[in-house]
Design a protein that fits this description.
By secondary structure, this protein is an alpha+beta fold. The protein has one domain. It is 35% helix and 12% strand. It is built from five helices and three strands. It has a three-stranded mixed beta sheet with strand order 2-1-3. α4 crosses α5. The protein is elongated. The two termini are 36 Å apart.
């Protein structure tokens, strides 16, 4: 926190004793389950849900984020190594991250 913000809160009698984080209630309200980047990846033997927020085509909105995607399409989009690293990161989180966007 820089000195300008610290001085603002120090001089403000309402906030001098405590600091209220503005986005905290939003952060606790959402989970990966409702996020549009949490997509079903359909393989030959199993279907897994994976966070695709790191895929540039989806992040920069060049492509629409699908509800589910075939694993071969994802391999063509990312490459095998990138897909393995995405699958290795694990499943859903109880608390949404900063990239959360609600599924419509
Ligand atoms: S909330 Fe964050 S970690 Fe969870 S699915 Fe969405 S982008 Fe991924």
């Amino acid at each position: 926190m820089d000195s300008k913000i610290r001085n603002y809160y120090a001089n403000n009698h309402l906030y001098s004793r405590k600091m209220i984080m503005p986005a905290t209630s939003e952060k606790f309200k959402n989970s990966c389950q409702e996020c549009k980047y949490y997509v079903e990846v359909v393989g030959h033997h199993e279907t897994r849900k994976v966070c695709l927020v790191e895929v540039k085509a989806y992040q920069k909105r060049h492509k629409r984020v699908p509800a589910n995607i075939e694993i071969m399409d994802l391999i063509l989009l990312l490459g095998k190594e990138k897909l393995e690293s995405l699958l290795g990161k694990g499943g859903q989180h109880l608390m949404a991250c900063g990239e959360f966007e609600e599924r419509i």
